[in-house]
Amino acid sequence: MTIYDIAKAANVAPSTVSRVINGNKNVKQSTREKVEAIIKEAGYTPNVLARNLSVGDSNTIAFVVPDIDNQFFTTLLHGITDMAMEIDANVFMFGTDENIEREQKVLSSLTSEMIKGIIIIPVLEENRTTKEKLTKFEESGIPVVLIDRDVIGSGFDGIFSEDSNGSAQAVELLIAEGHSNIAIITGPLTSYPGRERFKGYERALADNNITLNQEYVVNGGFRVQESYNAMKKIMQLEPRPTAIFTSNNLTTLGCLKYMKEHNMHIYEDISLVGFDDIPELTYTDINLTVVTRPVYKMGCDAMNLLKMRFPGSELSEGDRGIVRRHLVKTQIIKRGSEKYRPFEKNQE
Amino acid sequence: MTIYDIAKAANVAPSTVSRVINGNKNVKQSTREKVEAIIKEAGYTPNVLARNLSVGDSNTIAFVVPDIDNQFFTTLLHGITDMAMEIDANVFMFGTDENIEREQKVLSSLTSEMIKGIIIIPVLEENRTTKEKLTKFEESGIPVVLIDRDVIGSGFDGIFSEDSNGSAQAVELLIAEGHSNIAIITGPLTSYPGRERFKGYERALADNNITLNQEYVVNGGFRVQESYNAMKKIMQLEPRPTAIFTSNNLTTLGCLKYMKEHNMHIYEDISLVGFDDIPELTYTDINLTVVTRPVYKMGCDAMNLLKMRFPGSELSEGDRGIVRRHLVKTQIIKRGSEKYRPFEKNQE
DNA sequence: ATGAAAGCGCTAACAA
DNA sequence: TTGTTAGCGCTTTCAT
To answer: pTM for the full model?
Structure first.
């Protein structure tokens, strides 16, 4: 069934049917009602493909994430799809497995006719090819919005968080509890969050006149197993750190994995503060103090930023030139894991 | 840039370019090479939309899940997308929030031109409208594959698991540990997994001559909060159950939430076995014994089942009529939470 | 092996 | 306010 069938049945031209469907005001009320009745009766639904081809527009947005299994990203997806629904847009989610080649393959598979916009958490902050590809999309009218991780020198809109401040606060918390031998399991220092979170750690130590011990800084690559290995390395150091700051949720899990295997416990044996919450843990005895962000909302915001760049948005021409980068505030949730038994004993 | 531009540059007809692109054999080797060279040089990529419109085919598949945040579903998504990639298909994921109206709205928004197939975890097992909509898709050539939950009397292909057997084994395990007052927090009994898991519980009790106490059966609706409430109810019963069987991952979390709030511990205070694993818990002191399934693989299998129904698949005509329903085996992972302290004391 | 031309279903000038 | 018509970019008979 096509628009022609409806037109014939309603005794009007196809273009009139098209006008009715698209809410064009240039239609007499009576004809509109007639056409609408027929559409309803026939159960006709327009062919989106044909429409998109005709107007040269699409209604799907691509969401590219490094790790499809990480809850952080699926929560973002939730926010994105909820906002996308408001404009009847659908979203493709692509996982790149933190692999730059895969990311580029995904990007290459995306043609400008099939998508209306891109929201991406890039694998690397500095990669020529990715940057070029994304830039090309923007040039061809497909807006790009970053979340969480930056692409340096790119000028894309984006939603980021105050990683450095958040981390600094977390480490300050540990210091306030009496810790001075604080290790950090970092993310890749080649990524915005990895580096900023490390910077926060650095700053908190400096502000409190604690000399940074390079041995206490180990890369966990934002991965469970790597972070487990990092923890192993850290635990062999002398003096052994009394507290750990973990740079993201997977890092925290890797750390916990090591602790479990070695029968170590928070409070008794070590203190731990992590970046990003792990909801499942709130149902356990691991009362993890964390730096969090409003993840769902960040997804919504990203989608809204994208919408603003769509043709026909209410964005004035003058406003188009400006780059919108939101820096959302982090928040500390204190649950107790920053505390350390030996220190409490001293106070007794 | 269109196929015409390429044609012009190569001094051939558009149809020839089309043939080259689609690997049609009726092209002289030399012209093929010439055209390919030009395509490459020009960096031309065909317009998928136009192709789809022309051939009346699409390359995206819809994945409809009740809860976008549940890891179980995102793991399925992972399998699905990995298999979809092999045929260059993309997947839309839709969350229905366990809400039948939303499910139907999603289904209505899907038109047969935009998708090539549907993989769905339906909210309800018995709902006229959903069943009709899905049937209509199949009739119009869009195959439907179910995962985990059935639509009764539908005859769709699907991947299910031996929920009943798995649950029975789990409960048997508890019985073997000496439990006889075993409660179950069920899922909705109007869903295949909800009911089958309950049936397994029933059967295990019956097989061991334990009378089923109706009070021990409380619905948690496959949700955290509801399961928490269910647990509260259960804990007020006399005699208080010594073991709980939870019907899915969220149910388990709700149960754990209650336990934490009331300072109850596995082994000391109660035993617990759950359906579906919760990976995060393996990094904690909650050594949960669970019934699991190969979730990622189930996603892959579902996609593969769908592929078989696509036009052009190697499925012989005779095979088209048969319904393919895979029943994957569950597996028990024993980690200790089935044990109960008071019983062990008796043995000492 | 190649080309010409008619469509796929819709939209958007342009006319009326 | 409505209709006519020429595309959108591709595929696919049907000729040649």
So the answer is: 0.93
